Amino acid sequence: MANERIYNFSAGPSMLPLEVLEKAGSEITNFGGSGMSVMEMSHRSKVFLSIFEETKADFKRLFHVPDEYEVLFLGGGATLQFAMTAMNLITRTGKADYAITGNFAKKAYEEGSKYGECRIAASTADCNHTRIPKQDELKIGSDASYFYYTANNTIYGTEWNYTPVVPENVPIVCDMSSDILSRPVDVSKYGIIFAGAQKNMAPAGVTVVIIRKDLAGNALPYTPIMLDYAAMIKGDSMHNTPPCWNIYMLGLVLKWLEKQGGVEGMQAVKHGKAQLLYDFIDNSKLYKCAVQPDSRSDMNVVFTTGDAELDKKFAAESSKAGMSNLNGHRSVGGMRASIYNAMPIEGVKYLIEFMKKFETENG
Ligand SMILES: Cc1ncc(COP(=O)(O)O)c(C=O)c1O
Q: Which residue CA neighbors atom 10 of ligand 1 most closely?
């Protein structure tokens, strides 16, 4: 087993495509004849700047980012964006509306509330976040500086299957950390999209921000310069040293993504991959998925046997069978299979075969 790769169902950091890891491995001591690793290069060097430019151009092309948007590669993880989005956008009216569909949305709301009046546009806390609110449940004021939501709720296994409609001139801020690059997105409907890299894009350490350029330049007066989008745009993500290695890795993942048919190619397979699991769970006597069918995530499939001890046994035995990280988030328990872009369909089928066997032995 020591040299074999396993099916890693981790919610993040997550599996990366094998060919990306092999390519990075082959270049780790000497990138493209430069005589050094990307990890050792000046971020101002010609060779790194060409990696940076190519990665940015590939991202813009593959994610269909319109010209009036800037793509930034920042540090601080998605969590820093909870504060950064508020500090930059809330100045317009001092108010903002949040859809609370899980833990990360709540954290963003709490962080935003430090900088202005943040209101709850909708909350699914009453049903333990097992569904996504419908459009007609969203209370979004025309006086909101922005409307905020989390596209895919990694812990609860729910995903918005629509882009919310908002009052005119209210930009949408969206955390796409756990489903970015899994489907085409009409970026023009958004003010800011951000995503930590460690699920669908690259190792942890870079956060991709897509921002409509005219929204920058309105930060609160005490905003640290590193949290001011205008400064980040002006410096082209290089106001200070950017996460160079992670940007390079993102570049490799984007080349891989392109070979898979881009975000359109990913969309064509991701739903079928998830549905295999949901269909199996719904038809089984042992496993249950509490998430409403129309709100189920294609990225994080949550399920349980309904018995905490049996769930623990499932996690232990699945690990022995060559799979990892199938236990649910510590706040909800049960199991969770995170099946991001890099998880091949064979991994999902392998998991289902294991689930069948486990059901026969323990059902
Ligand atoms: C949807 C979502 N938002 C935000 C975060 C936090 O990301 P980070 O650890 O990069 O701050 C996560 C992490 O799992 C997430 O799944």
A: 77
Percent of the chain clearing pLDDT 90 (strictly above): 98
Nearest CA to ligand 1 atom 15: 177
CB 300 within 8 A of CB 338: yes
- Residues β-bridged to residue 149: 174
CA 17 distance to own-chain centroid: 16
With tokens 């954290």, the residue in question is 107
Q: Please, which pLDDT band fits residue 2 given cuts at 50, 70 and 90?
A: low
Atom of ligand 1 nearest to the CA of 80: 11
Pocket test for ligand 1, best of 178, 331, 332 (most atoms within 8 A of CB): 178
Its pTM stands at 0.98
- Residue 353 Cα, ligand 1 centroid: separation in angstroms? 30
Work out the number of other CB atoms within 10 angstroms of the CB of residue 136.
7
Give residue-wise pLDDT tens across range 146-167.
999 999 999 999 999 999 999 9
Phi, psi of 129 (to 5 degrees): 55, 40
Work out the number of other CB atoms within 10 angstroms of the CB of residue 227.
21
For the CA of 198, the closest atom of ligand 1 is 10
